[in-house]
């Protein structure tokens, strides 16, 4: 059975050649739907790689415009994109890279019910956002809908990366809120105040794309779910921590018991 | 200042059971803490930041609700890091 066109086969041959992917894996990617929340440095890197890999449908969400100070790390944008909506400029670049990919834009912040709808449509969700309340909301909705969440963050020389495979039957490991049970960060932890090195945030965005391709093309994550990967961009080392379930977590506590 | 190990052994020998100390590390720095001290007490003892912070012992993240019930043992390694949200 032929699952790909000749054009697709030639275009994606280098990843089809991998035994874990093959033609069937590529066909799976082509049918997949990824929700990317945030079109900054993470979304730039992840979006470019997922478009290049031939993910069938990408939905990009951001309420911001491109600023000249973004260009140092948000590599999907060009100088001519300054002042354009990030979602529109992102969609144009991703479409130019791969016209076989469908890109839909949401140029605003999603409220909870809109986010629930978008997560329902997605096979995996990439959290590329830049603030804690959004991250907590994304986690809650992904957990409730059993949708895999691929989370990353970066600031300064540091990055953090974690996969939460909420599609697993036993959600035995901790969720994002078990790890970070708060809605606000310590003051002064923003990129605008702390600075961020472009390739650090790019590395983390590439990790998100890599994890998404694992899940979509091979059917499972090969990276361990429920682990926090800490990147030190100065020493260029990674450290891994196990995220344990918080028995008092507001999101995932008693998830398998009936609700009262 | 962290005293060298031998002085701590002497200190242990010279005191009764309740004052015993154990050596742990906090972000790779050796520190002495009371025997049976829990994570919350150590955070207080060393005035460690706890807003937006995560603590792991031997690379296992300790959920916030378990800080007060998690007792440290000799040789345990505490990692402290800040949550970040930049994208």
Count of helical stretches of chain B: 2
Biggest sheet features of chain A: 8 strands, mixed
The CATH architecture of chain A can be named as 3-Layer(aba) Sandwich
For the record, what CATH class of chain B applies? Alpha Beta
Tell me about this structure.
The complex is a heterodimer of chains A (260) and B (87). By secondary structure, chain A is α/β, with parallel strands linked by helices. Chain A has one domain (32-242): NAD(P)-binding Rossmann-like Domain (Rossmann fold). Chain A contains ten helices and eight strands. Chain A has helices spanning 6-11, 13-16, 22-31, 41-53, 86-97, 112-121, 132-144, 176-179, 191-194, 198-218, and strands at residues 33-37, 57-61, 102-106, 124-127, 149-155, 158-164, 227-232, 237-242. Chain A has an eight-stranded mixed β-sheet, sandwiched between helices. In chain A, helix 3 crosses helix 10, helix 4 runs parallel beside helix 10 and helix 6 (112-121) packs across helix 7 (132-144). The N and C termini of chain A lie far apart (50 Å). The model of chain A has no long low-confidence stretch (mean pLDDT 95). Chain B has 87 residues and is α+β, with helices and mostly antiparallel strands. In chain B, strands 2-1-5-3-4 form a five-stranded mixed β-sheet. Chain B has one domain (8-81): Roll (Ubiquitin-like (UB roll)), CATH 3.10.20.30. In chain B, a hairpin with a 2-residue loop joins strand 3 (53-57) and strand 4. Chain B is 20% helix and 29% strand. The interface between A and B is medium-sized, with 47 and 22 residues.
Features:
heterodimer, A: 260 residues, Rossmann fold, 8 strands, globular, B: 87 residues, alpha+beta, Ubiquitin-like (UB roll), 5 strands, 29% strand, disordered N terminus
Question: Would you spell out the secondary-structure blueprint of this structure?
Answer:
The complex is a heterodimer of chains A (260) and B (87).
Chain A: H1 6-11, H2 13-16, H3 22-31, E1 33-37, H4 41-53, E2 57-61, H5 86-97, E3 102-106, H6 112-121, E4 124-127, H7 132-144, E5 149-155, E6 158-164, H8 176-179, H9 191-194, H10 198-218, E7 227-232, E8 237-242
Parallel strand pairs in A: 1-2, 1-4, 2-3, 4-5
Antiparallel strand pairs in A: 5-6, 6-7, 7-8
Chain B: H1 5-14, E1 21-26, E2 29-34, H2 39-45, E3 53-57, E4 60-61, E5 77-82
Parallel strand pairs in B: 1-5
Antiparallel strand pairs in B: 1-2, 3-4, 3-5
């Amino acid at each position: 059975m032929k699952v790909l066109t000749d054009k697709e086969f030639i275009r994606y041959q280098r990843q089809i050649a991998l035994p874990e992917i093959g033609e069937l894996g590529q066909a799976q990617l082509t049918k997949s739907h990824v929700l990317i929340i945030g079109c900054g440095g993470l979304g730039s890197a992840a979006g470019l790689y997922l478009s290049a890999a031939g993910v069938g449908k990408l939905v990009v969400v951001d309420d911001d415009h491109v600023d000249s100070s973004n260009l140092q790390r948000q590599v999907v944008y060009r100088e001519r994109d300054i002042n354009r909506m990030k979602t529109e400029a992102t969609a144009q670049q991703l479409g130019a890279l791969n016209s076989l990919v469908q890109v839909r834009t949401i140029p605003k912040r999603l409220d909870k019910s809109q986010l629930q709808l978008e997560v329902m449509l997605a096979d995996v969700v990439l959290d590329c956002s830049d603030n804690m309340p959004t991250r907590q909301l994304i986690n809650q909705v992904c957990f409730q809908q059993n949708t895999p969440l691929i989370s990353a963050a970066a600031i300064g020389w540091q990055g953090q990366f974690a996969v939460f495979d909420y599609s697993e039957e036993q959600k035995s490991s901790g969720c994002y809120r078990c790890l970070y049970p708060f809605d606000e960060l310590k003051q002064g932890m923003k990129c605008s105040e702390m600075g961020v090195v472009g390739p650090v945030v790019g590395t983390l965005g590439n990790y998100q794309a890599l994890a998404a391709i694992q899940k979509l093309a091979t059917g499972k994550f090969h990276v361990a779910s429920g682990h926090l990967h800490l990147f030190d961009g100065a020493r260029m080392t990674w450290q891994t921590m196990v995220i344990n379930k918080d028995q008092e977590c507001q999101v995932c506590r008693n998830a398998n018991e009936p609700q009262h | 200042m962290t005293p060298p190990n031998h002085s701590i052994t002497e200190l242990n020998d010279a005191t009764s059971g309740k004052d015993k100390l154990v050596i742990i590390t906090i972000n790779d720095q050796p520190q002495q803490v009371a025997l049976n001290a829990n994570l919350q007490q150590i955070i207080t003892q060393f005035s460690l930041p706890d807003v937006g912070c995560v603590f792991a012992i031997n690379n296992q993240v300790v959920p916030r609700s378990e800080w007060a019930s998690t007792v440290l043992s000799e040789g345990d390694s505490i990692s402290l890091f800040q949550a970040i949200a930049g994208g």
